[in-house]
Specification:
single chain; 169 residues; 4 strands; two-stranded antiparallel ribbon; alpha+beta; two-stranded antiparallel sheet
Length: 169
């Protein structure tokens, strides 16, 4: 089968069994368990109730738009990390048809309009970084440091994030 590599716009040819084993190992190592019951209908009903309770934020037309038409569970795809030993996977989850996709995007869009979080020390992609570096005056005392962040989102404090989001909305 053909699989995208994690970096470098590369496509990899891999035996389907190897690919499946890599995904299975990832799920096992991260203690991911299958659900015994499909929660989608229950989730959709719950989302509808919450949206209707928040009629000061969402009008009826917005509620109708935010409710999923044909929701499906998120799907997992894996990209291979060719630059790492044993070529582990980078999980890529497609949530576009998940019940909460649109409702998760809406507050994000609202917050983007309210907050200005421009940071001159962040970069968008490697091309932008290369263009920025060319403009720098560098001497022999300067150092470039990169960090690889693993499991960033599991470290975000949920309570503080919700309080901040509520205050901004």
């Amino acid at each position: 089968m053909l699989v995208k590599a994690n970096k470098g716009r590369t496509t990899v040819i891999i035996y389907k069994e190897q690919y499946t084993n890599k995904i299975h190992n990832f799920l096992t190592e991260n203690n991911i368990q299958p659900l015994h019951k499909n929660p989608i209908n229950k989730d959709c009903k719950h989302i509808q109730e919450i949206l209707q309770q928040n009629n000061l934020i969402f009008n009826k037309r917005q509620v109708k738009y935010l409710l999923p038409k044909n929701p499906t569970p998120p799907t997992l795809n894996a990209q291979l990390k060719l630059h790492k030993p044993n070529k582990p996977i980078r999980p890529v989850v497609n949530n576009k048809n998940a019940p909460t996709y649109k409702t998760a995007k809406k507050p994000n869009d609202i917050l983007k309009q309210c907050l200005c979080l421009d940071n001159p020390y962040n970069t968008i992609n490697s091309t932008s970084l290369a263009n920025d570096i060319v403009k720098l005056t560098i001497n022999n005392k300067h150092r470039m440091i990169t960090h690889e962040v693993k499991n960033l989102y599991v470290n975000i404090p949920i309570d503080e994030t919700l309080k901040f989001t509520e205050s901004q909305l």
